Batch of 4 targets.
Target 1
Amino acid sequence: MLDRPMAEIEHALEFTAAENDPRGQLRIAVTSIAEEFLSGPLIASFAKAFPHITIDVTVTDEEFDIVAGGFDAGVRLGEVIEKDMIAVSIIGEQREAAVASPDYLASHQAPRHPRDLMQHRCINWRPAANVAPHRWEFEENGIPFDIAVVPHITTNDLRLMLRLALSGAGVTFGVRDTFQPYIQSGELVPVLEEYLPHFPGFFLYFPQRRNMAPKLRALIDHVRSRQSARFVTPPL
């Protein structure tokens, strides 16, 4: 049996080797609305850069202790992350959007104020069956307020909300990044833009540990490098 000093040296050598070639399974709990993280390129580029790390992503909107759940890290909006966690920005400020299809708006006058939503067919989100539907958050003259719309359709599936809005089922509400490609193509039309403020975006978060696992350090560095690349001015 190795004595303690030799065991510590061997552990340090193994840790250094792992830092140079991170490996193992990385478990991440990600909210379903984190479009930037779940869209594909971020995870795909990380997997390509670190072929010996296997990635297990659980998409969940439940709020729970990621450490007790056996996860290495999580991705959520900054405002709902526990204070004792370390958080690294994935993307900067976000903005929500209320959208509907041109066909729906052709037969229903577009809302001019958030209170007008009470007269519309709304497609709303809830994180779980036993949780109340999401209240739509707005701001007027610097004062925040929310509306408890009466949803015609409620679901915990963001993609279903998107497909229903594209099909003309009504007005839906969510992070603008989710709808942006369809807004640009004209398939969805934003409404109530002047009442929608910016808010802190999504963060990768994890517990503070004295010796961070190299696989987690690799993910943190990857996220930071992608974030930095957003602010690099391209050559002329």
Target 2
Amino acid sequence: MLQNKYSFNQSSTELVISGLPDYSNNDNKDNISIISSWKLSIINQPEIEGNIDHLKSVIKAFYKVAALSLLDREEKIESELIDLNLDDSGSYRITLKSTKPDVEPLNLKIGYAEFSDIINCFDQLKNFNKINIDFNELLPNINKKRIFSFNKNKFTYTIIPPLIAFFTISIFAFISIYFFENNDSRNKNISIISNKLNIVIKI
């Protein structure tokens, strides 16, 4: 029986999924419900491949790191099959662990562009209806309360300066308007006095 194969590409990255339909669930002949192999190719990096458990672990780790980045949080992801974290240089360090005891872990270092390309390939896979993978168990479950957590230092350095600038501008504007109105009123009074003096002189 011939296997189905589908690829998902984004700039530096290609994800290839191979497998078979599950005819016991009345699958279409073009579907993949039984994934037999997968391969992730990244430019200038060794190819990544493994079984379905590896694929799910990789997808789950990448999605979680991406979600934490959107929340401006950093957290090292560690599991039996993959470790993933952002280092001080801004690169993503990946350690892929084999289930075979005689195979050494594979260590990779990729940049933000490659990380984004991988996420894009996973998104393509998620939205592709011919490959059946339950993404509900792969998407990160992050405490929503942390989204609104108060960071005192961040508030101090990002909110206070604009407020100070706003109030400073407001004060100067108020002073300028105050002096302008007083000056305008003073000029009107002088004009009235001058007119009165002219009248007096004419009489």
Target 3
Amino acid sequence: MTDACELSAVDARRLIGEKRLSPVELLDSCIAQIERVNPAVNAVVTTAFDRARMEARAAEAAVMRGDPLPPLHGLPVAIKDTHITAGVRTTYGSPHYKDNVPERDDHVVESIRAAGGIVHAKTNVPELGIGGNTVNRLFGATGNPFGLERTCGGSSGGSAAALAANMAPLASGSDTGGSLRLPACFCGVVAHRPSAGVVAHGGRALAQSYYNTQGPMARTAGDAALLLAAMARRSRRDPMAYPLDPDQFLQLDEIDLSGLRVAVSPDLGGVPVSDVVRRTFAERVERFQGAFKVCEWRSPAFADAMDVFWKLRSIVFIAQYYREIDGYDADFNPNIRSNYQSALKMDLKEVAVAHRRQMELYQDLQNLFESFDVLLCPGVSIPPFPWRDLFPKAIDGMPSNTYVDWVGMTSALTITGHPITALPCGLDPTGAPFGIQVIGPNFADRFTLGVAQSLERLFEADDALRRPVPGIARRPADSR
């Protein structure tokens, strides 16, 4: 028998609308799962159970009255601890903000609540959300549900781990260099990095930048699209937000894979990738390539993309932290301090050249989509490493120059701002989830998610490709 917390968000919402599942029952199931598994995983760092139960009872009453129900009505949503929540502690994973209880929601949380979502938990992040490993001084490390001593990725690591362990059907996340996609791939869940401006974000330090994007996380592509419909509500506070109907994401098109022209790349034309990831990706492509009209090995010329990413990221870091960094203590997140100090050493020409190269990389990728409908590539460069290592110092013996070098498969794509859905694709040889990225043409978010959903259904029929479920997520009676 399936517990309510194991249901997909789409199925749970349908059952709520049919009066076959109470929002109270669903919330209680998620809370029970948190209480059972979170002490081991440490994905949830703050709870709002009392208020959530009040909201669930109100949602149940609305169903019984026959009121019109919004898209997320009665669905528990875990919120990344960098997203501001009114009346619920928001720490950003830092001791500096351990007692911070905001008076208002940020735009993403406000949009989720307006769509009927119930905020019941906040999820762990690296300090201030900077890093690909979810460890901080305030709450400690979030373990990977598939192996608690390994990293769950970051910075949306708590959200990904909570989803994989069935603590919530939906979760919010954000992405600069891969903070949605990397933990989704490590934990065997789905995340979507939207095209710039799809999800309004007035909290960026720069008015015009592809870098920091808010996005949905879930266990299926359809669930991610459902949450995106709520998150994509318009806001005048974001100069990059453009006219858009968020309801388009409520129903994805059925994509016929047999008509698709698909490009596949193991390394985006030169990004460092470990041998085990290359071999695993090639094996997976061999299993599913026959489903497409065309499937060819093609790579964009992204060999220098990580250098561009680092330089443009440095601009973001100066803008983000120049007012506060002198007040941070000596033990503050070393990723932030090292990136900030590196940024101060750059000259204007370096930055300008990086911006020009960004434009060229964008156009090169758009040119690829004149011949192909989507590009598929691995979501990570290496399997999950021990969380006690802040980041891996090398890939197959090749040293990393910066703490972001190992996330090149996600960071290189950040530069161009294209929509990307991270999707689980079985397990890797180390027993960890293996994830791929589905990259679509700019602003083709609905299509990209639709392709991911069709791939998901294809993968479900193959034991080697379907989404893995960690043993810790199952009830004790089902873990035999």
Target 4
Amino acid sequence: MQTKLIIHPDEMSKQWVDVAKKNNIDVIGIHSVGNVNAHINLKNDLDLFQTKQYKSAVDYANLSGIKVEYEIHAVSYLLPRELFLTHPEYFRADENGVRMQNLNFCASNAEALEIIANNAVTLAEKLYGSTNNYFFWTDDIKNSYCKCEKCKNFSPSDQNLILMNAIIKKMREKDKNAKIAFLAYYDTVNLPKKVTPEKGVFLEYAPYERDLYAPASAVGEKEVELIKKLIEFFGKENSCVLEYWYDNSYFSGYKKPPKKLVVNNSIIKEDVQFYLNLGFENVSSFACFLGQDYRELYGEPDFSALKK
């Protein structure tokens, strides 16, 4: 089992690496803030990734035996929104067939897919110190997938997988070992019906809509069966669950100053075993709003439940 904690870019520091090392965390994930401004946030973060201080922290992580990966709602960055002025057909259509400049893309447009895939290759090169596991998620808003005449026959999960397939095929032209996550989250949590994954696509399951104050096993038989089918469909290799046990941005209402994080170690340990029993190879959790400002207010957060 590999464990990962996911933080915001401005929280990355040598102090954070020390906390991760102390708790035997294998990977630190870097997550640009999502929502409708995800593409703007990512653009700003790309400048941060080139700073001496940030690179030094990533280098320190690698020297400490901790890998660094990037988990990003990237589509609105990979398909620049200004292209809407000349190529509205690249963009999603709403229920009335009207093309929309904001959020996601048209999964039936080959040129749009090509642009996104090419830009994904370029983006990967800008992610300082990253492994060859990539997490270029679709946009972080419900009901934002294309409903044009062609796309309406494909579910959000199918459209998501169409995109991940296009990206990984392009990326593997340069790196045969590149891998990309299919994020099962919000509208894409259901099984794709008409599209199958290319080699290198792996499952990342993020149960954001479950009761985050209850054990994961309380989701019920229907959800457990869905998880099993997702693992069977994508395969166990590299499969990971993305949880919210330590997501203090969520528990703080996405507003600072951060609240004090209260964790239930017994439930987290139970959840980890629950996911491993289902077949996941790796576990991860958001751990945002736990940076230097949090430590100054409350001290070091408790990640002991993930110690192997």
